[in-house]
């Protein structure tokens, strides 16, 4: 299936207060910031949202809060992947019940399944739910790579809506794009590659940096859609220092620090992740200020 969403999606931070609890006031502020700046979809409980360190009750509370707060103003995409197919199926069914418009399901990680195992994993999820599913390919984190031929097979399933591609290999991404064109959609999952992926026909992008700069991220998308690649290159060049800063340490550590600095209340990461190192905090403040953002913390 195609056209689940076209445009920009933000891989949302889950803000945690110093006492360790989810900070719903800050989370609500973040949601409003995204919607006000034209973000088309919010990806909640994806990698950037730290679901691996959240209890099932916390995840349910976050899904319930998100659905109530967003209230149809943007697409809601809940993360539901696992390295256990049965767990992924149950998480996907639960996400659908809590009001997801679609799912982002990362490949099974750590287990290192075969290409056929990847196919059967997504088929099981597809058979269990009726809402669109975006496959998430991020081999540097998972140790598993969805090859183009496998994605071509997956595109034939009834509700596979696309792939969030973060393999980092443009040759592979181009081949995947060729094989799935007209069957399901390609989404950039790597902020550094947003422009080239959009240029080869990507339907949109799922961004970490747009937690901080959603307006400019949407401008990039709009310029490409209008065929104005000169302006797209200019805005991408302007965004690159912020994009690079989001990965000065492992995601989402820098994004949470940046959100805190500009008053959104990113909070702290959960262990085993740690707060941004002091020298990186100072560097982050300089980068955000140079971009034109008001740094208040």
Automatic annotation (TrEMBL):
Enzyme class: lyase
Pfam families, sorted: DHDPS (PF00701)
Keyword check for Cell division: no
Active-site residues per Swiss-Prot or TrEMBL entry: 136 (proton donor/acceptor), 164 (schiff-base intermediate with substrate)
UniProt keyword annotations, A-Z: Amino-acid biosynthesis, Cytoplasm, Diaminopimelate biosynthesis, Lyase, Lysine biosynthesis, Schiff base
Reaction(s) this enzyme catalyzes, per UniProt: L-aspartate 4-semialdehyde + pyruvate = (2S,4S)-4-hydroxy-2,3,4,5-tetrahydrodipicolinate + H2O + H(+)
Top-level taxon of origin: Bacteria
Cellular compartments per GO CC: cytosol
Cited InterPro entries: Aldolase_TIM (IPR013785), DapA (IPR005263), DapA-like (IPR002220), Schiff_base-form_aldolases_AS (IPR020625)
Residues binding pyruvate: 48, 206
One GO MF term attached to the UniProt entry: 4-hydroxy-tetrahydrodipicolinate synthase activity
Chain's role: Catalyzes the condensation of (S)-aspartate-beta-semialdehyde [(S)-ASA] and pyruvate to 4-hydroxy-tetrahydrodipicolinate (HTPA).
Subunit details: Homotetramer; dimer of dimers.
Designated name of the protein: 4-hydroxy-tetrahydrodipicolinate synthase
Organism of this sequence: Candidatus Borkfalkia avistercoris
């Amino acid at each position: 299936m195609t056209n689940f969403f076209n445009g920009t999606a933000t891989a949302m931070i889950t803000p945690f207060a110093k006492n360790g609890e989810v900070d719903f006031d800050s989370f609500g502020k973040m949601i409003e910031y995204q919607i006000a700046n034209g973000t088309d979809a919010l990806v909640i409980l994806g990698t950037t949202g730290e679901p691996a360190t959240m209890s099932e009750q916390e995840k349910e509370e976050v899904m319930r809060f998100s659905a109530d707060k967003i209230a149809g103003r943007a697409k809601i995409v809940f993360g539901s992947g696992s390295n256990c197919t049965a767990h992924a199926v149950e998480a996907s069914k639960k996400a659908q019940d809590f009001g997801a418009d679609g799912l982002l399901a990362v490949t099974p990680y750590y287990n290192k399944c075969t290409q056929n195992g990847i196919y059967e994993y997504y088929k099981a999820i597809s058979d269990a739910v009726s809402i669109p599913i975006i496959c998430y390919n991020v081999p540097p984190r998972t140790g598993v790579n969805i090859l183009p031929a496998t994605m071509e097979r997956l595109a034939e399933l009834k509700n596979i809506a696309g792939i969030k591609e973060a393999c980092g290999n443009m040759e592979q991404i181009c081949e995947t794009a060729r094989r799935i064109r007209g069957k399901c959609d390609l989404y950039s999952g790597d902020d550094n590659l947003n422009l080239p992926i959009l240029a080869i026909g990507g339907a949109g992008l799922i961004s970490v940096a747009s937690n901080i700069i959603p307006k400019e991220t949407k401008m990039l998308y709009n310029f490409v859609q209008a065929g104005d690649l000169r302006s797209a290159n200019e805005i991408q060049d302007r965004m690159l220092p912020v994009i690079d800063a989001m990965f000065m340490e492992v995601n989402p550590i820098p994004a949470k620090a940046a959100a805190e600095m500009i008053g959104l209340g990113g909070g702290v990461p959960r262990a085993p992740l740690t707060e941004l190192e002091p020298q990186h905090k100072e560097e982050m403040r300089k980068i955000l200020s140079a971009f034109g953002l008001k740094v208040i913390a």
